[in-house]
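At this stage, I put together a protein sequence along with its fold in token form, as given directly below:
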Amino acid sequence: MRPIKLKISAFGPYANVTEFDFDKLGTGGLYLITGDTGAGKTTIFDAITYALYGVPSGTNREVSMFRSKYADDSIPTEVELVFSYRNKEYTVKRNPEYERQAKRGGGITKQIATATLIYPDGKTVDKIKEVDNAIKDIIGIDRNQFCQIAMIAQGDFLKLLLAPTTERMEIFRHIFKTDLYQNLQERLKRESSKLSNECTNIRQSISQYINGIVCAENNTDSIEVKNAKNGEMTIEDTLKLLEKLISEDETAEKTTEKEKVNLQKSLDNVKLIVNKAKEILSAKADLEKNKTDLVAETEKQKALLEKAETEKKKHN
């Protein structure tokens, strides 16, 4: 926020209408308001702060004290500030509540407090609370922060330097409009935490699979397998080790498959031999049986012949 022009009327020690043209001081750098004690320096601070926020710049003054005791009854107490923010000009006018001479019938009447804000496009806001909210939306800081950073009275800069870190962060965040980056930072933290948890779960899962690696003690890779299970190897090296073990297992599987085929052929040959042996044994058993039957039949025939010879002798 850069003040362009300030007009005060019957305000503090300024009995008449007084204008301050800050444009004559240039558009860059800082403005230093200096002068003897009682010269009206603080009144300028009060006028700017009051125009923006409806309150004085200090805590030891009240709005009811703004009416100049030197002013003529015909001169109203009011403040008008033209300021620039992001290359756009705004005008804000305020007058405090005070007692003044009635225009008709004599006596004393009360002048009510009013506020008006004129936007760059001519739009007007004329309710005190709406003006207060609009100023905060435009500038982005409240009265306390404004007095700490944009318009620092004598001795108040030390308060900013000594303010708690969280308070200074809040002030600078409003000044530089870094809420967007803070929100992004917080979102990135949440995403980072989420990804970190996912990574932890994945690592635990990988560790579980690594602990399930089986390797023979006489295998040359057994030492590396133990290192992997103890977490002494990187994931990349462990994956390379697994690829090597899998390749070795695939080669061993192919060799075993070939041996299995050869064994099956040998088994088939053995089955043929066994079957032939069974056939030979069966034939041998049949031969032995036939031989026994033949001997029995021979003995039987011999007995019959002997009997026949005996009978023949009897008839002769």
Observations:
- The longest strand covers residues 2-11.
- The first helix runs from residue 41 to 53.
- DSSP finds eight helices and eight strands in the chain.
- Strands lie at 2-11, 14-21, 78-85, 88-95, 98-101, 108-111, 114-118, 124-125.
